[in-house]
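User: My collaborator sent over this chain with a note saying "see what the structure looks like." That's all I know about it. Can you take a look?
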Amino acid sequence: MKKLSAVVGLIGFCTYAATWAVAAEAAENSPRITGLYSDMWYLTGKQQIVGTEIFIMQNQAGYIAMVQCAQGPAGTPFVTPMTLKGNSVAIEIPAREDTLCCAGRFTGTIVEKQLRGRFEGCKSESVVLVRKNSYWQ
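Assistant: Without extra context I'll predict from the sequence alone. Here is the result:
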C-alpha cells in the first residue's frame, strides 16, 4: 500500500511539474502586451516633434491606452479603453483637436517588442511603434 501511495504521489508531482513547464514556456513565447510603444522623435533644424506614443496599461476593467500624437507640437495625451484579442489591439481615437491624432481607430498587432498597425481615419499609412522608453524620458 505504501508503494502504491508513493507511485500515485510521484505521478501527481510529475503531472504538476509538466503542467508548470508548459505554462512557463507559453508565457515566454507570447509577447508582453503592456508597455510603451513609440516612434516619436525630434526633427532637428525645424524644432518640431513628430510621431506617436501609445502606453498600454491594465486596470480593473481590462486594458487601457494612453495615446499622444505629435505633428510639430506635441498634442494633449488622452486615456481610452482598448480592445485586446490575443496580441491584436484596437484603440478608439476620439475626435478632439487638442490631441493632434487622427479621429477614428488604431488597429495593430504586438510582435517582437513592436506595435505594428495603422490609423483608420485621416492617415492610412502603417506605423511601427517600438517598445522602449518614452521620448520624454
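A starting point for your reply to your collaborator: Residues 17-27 have pLDDT under 50 and may be disordered.
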